[in-house]
């Protein structure tokens, strides 16, 4: 377990652990495989393994090359698996990094747990490490403590932050298997895991994380999360036949739907208009372009969710274009 202070740093640490592992066992590998539309942070390393676009275009010359597998969109899951099998066959890939079950900033894109199970199987076959970036999906977001549980897999490296302190104070942790730890644990100082920061395992942040863990241990958190998931699924139901929206989707406590518009995408004009529309009604919903999503705090009430869904319905009538 290696502590740091943000989701981005937890991913940087994960990437360094993967490369350090292969170097220290004397079989260097340096290629990272990534999933299309991913987001892993805003540092140079994490931008390199995330989707390229307007947000990182200025820094492109500094970003390292990666192999990209397609997003497993419904009906195209096998393409993702085939591509991963192909890029990992030459055994140059150190790691595959994924956001398990839900790609957040990429548009709340959801894929089935079975794909994750298969990705792990292929990774094992080729000796490629699996890095699970659970920065957003961890701590109950997808319905289980970690999303990987739903795929019945244990990643080689797991990144966690955000929910680790209940979203209150900056803290992150990168967890690795014993094999990766042992590859760095040596009297040979060249094998040291060289990463440190002034605020690593900051005691106040750790106290907040411990308080969060106590809540998980002592309170019926799993039941609350299941109840919130059910509310989200029920809330979305009214949009299934609404022509102003498409792709209604829910995974655990996360609900998302796309507003039909003639110009979709993250930078679509509609994004700021929608945000202003919701703010006027006292609601803080931050759309990703035309993608509307609700990722509420676990203390949200059914009545509050209803207000949000009512406003989304109204927004559909105001801004949506019917097919
Ligand atoms: C999946 C994922 N990874 C990494 C990050 C980066 O975390 P931070 O903003 O704490 O650096 C985020 C942030 O939203 C995220 O959603």
What would the CATH topology of the largest domain be? Answer: Aspartate Aminotransferase, domain 2
Widest β-sheet, arrangement of strands: 1-9-8-7-4-2-3
CATH architecture name of the largest domain: 3-Layer(aba) Sandwich
Radius of gyration: 20 Å
State the major sheet. 7 strands, mixed
Mean pLDDT value: 96
Annotation, overall tally of beta strands: 12
Tally the helices: what do you get? 9
How many domain units?
Answer: 2
Produce a short descriptive summary:
This protein has helices at 7-24, 44-48, 77-88, 113-126, 178-184, 203-218, 221-237, 270-280, 302-319, and strands at residues 2-4, 31-35, 67-69, 93-98, 102-103, 109-110, 129-133, 157-160, 172-176, 245-251, 254-259, 291-294. It is α/β, with parallel strands linked by helices and 323 residues long. The longest helix is centred in the N-terminal third of the chain and has 18 residues, at 7-24.
